[in-house]
Write a structure and sequence with these properties.
alpha+beta; 2 domains; 6-stranded antiparallel β-sheet; 3-stranded antiparallel β-sheet; elongated; 3 helices
Length: 180
């Protein structure tokens, strides 16, 4: 009985293989995300071109990626369906990866300034329309502080928009490495 169990365990262990190479994104010393062969990856190439694909292999410091693009197109009945286009294989060094999209984009309207821009633009538009309808001076002494506050909100939104980043740039803070 013991010999049978030992033989079965030995036979099963021959089929088991260790995990292949691993691509690792680190923030200083903390692991943020990992990819293995067969994983989907989206990144910005050193030429600032966005590339998406499936990782075919990770060897030493190079990646072999099957480039794909998934698009939404209409089928013969007019309903939207997903279509995949293959562009071929791309071999690159991990140093050629310039940036990756953030996992959670933080695209709420308050953080990226869109709410401030939309709100102040709508307020200025309505203020000018109401001033014209009521035959009030648009740049009158009572209306000018209100427009100034709206312009300040617009400038604040633009500042938030320029400082808001939705990509992770590979550099001193974030590093990309392979693990064998």
């Amino acid at each position: 009985m013991k010999l049978t169990v030992l033989i079965i365990c030995c036979c099963l262990s021959f089929g088991v293989s260790a995990q292949k190479d691993l691509l690792l994104l680190k923030h200083k010393t903390k692991s943020v995300q990992t990819w293995t062969s067969g994983s989907y990856i989206l990144f910005q190439f050193s030429s600032k071109q966005w590339i998406e694909g499936i990782i075919k292999s990770i060897k030493n410091d190079s990646l072999l990626i099957d480039q794909i693009q998934v698009q939404q197109v209409g089928n013969q009945f007019g309903y939207p369906t997903l279509d995949t286009v293959h562009f071929g294989l791309l071999k690159l060094h991990i140093n050629e990866v310039y940036a990756l999209p953030q996992k959670n984009f933080h695209t709420n309207m308050l953080n990226n300034g869109t709410l401030f821009i939309m709100g102040s633009t709508a307020y200025v538009f309505l203020n000018i329309v109401n001033s014209l309808v009521k035959n009030d001076a648009i740049l009158g002494s009572d209306n000018l502080p209100k427009l100034g506050i709206a312009v300040g909100g617009f400038v604040l939104g633009k500042v938030l928009q320029s400082t808001h980043k939705n990509i992770i740039q590979i550099g001193p803070k974030y590093t990309l490495s392979t693990i064998k």
